[in-house]
Amino acid sequence: MSLAQRVLPAVDETTVPVLGGGVFPVRRIYCVGRNYVDHIREMKEADERDPPFFFQKPRDSIVQDGDTVPYPPLTSDFQFEGELVLAIGKPGRQIAVENALDHVFGYAAGIDLTRRDRQRDARDMRLPWEIGKSFDASAPCGIVTPVSAGGHRTSGAITLAVNGAERQRGELAQMIWNVPEIIAQLSRQVTLGIGDLIFTGTPAGVGAVVPGDEIVVTIDGLKPLTIAIAAPEN
């Protein structure tokens, strides 16, 4: 039996470069909300003891290191959130905490770009966060460093600078829910698959950017991620 003919062109695959060569194919993008105590306090929302919750971004919202992000529509408060990203290389569900690191292929620096005004509107109306979080070019992700090359990232400094001035500084060990716990919690809700990326939350210091700004995220043991903000597209 012949394969069915496509009625439209094939959708482009989304990938992220891997240190040492090759690319990581992106299946889904998950993000952890409010995973550093100091960020919860600066945002003045939620209980510090709340369990983790997750939201998604479209996989074609990936932006690679060195790329430019147009200032998005529907916002006047476009903000950065520097984050550690997990790259899943082994599928699973109901994963035990003690086995969770076996499912990690590697780690990368990332940015959860946010239309903060739209996120606040959605929160106040008790609506989903998609309008504030899940838009075009909202998920910059740097080069993935495989565990085989750099080990696991359970501690180390994470910083974000805008135009050379440091705006965020945190420590991965300060995460309320650590890497194994994040994987275990998420795998209770969905089956994790090869190619999933998990953005793990941001420390305090989030803020707005404008066209012309350069953002650099640095995490100990990983390749830095650099993007630039451009004027809005016509």
Automatic annotation (TrEMBL):
SUPFAM superfamilies: FAH. Keywords: Hydrolase. Residues 29-226 form the Fumarylacetoacetase-like C-terminal domain. This is Fumarylacetoacetate hydrolase. It comes from Pseudorhodoplanes sinuspersici. Pfam families: FAA_hydrolase. GO terms for molecular function: acetylpyruvate hydrolase activity. The keyword Chaperone does not apply.
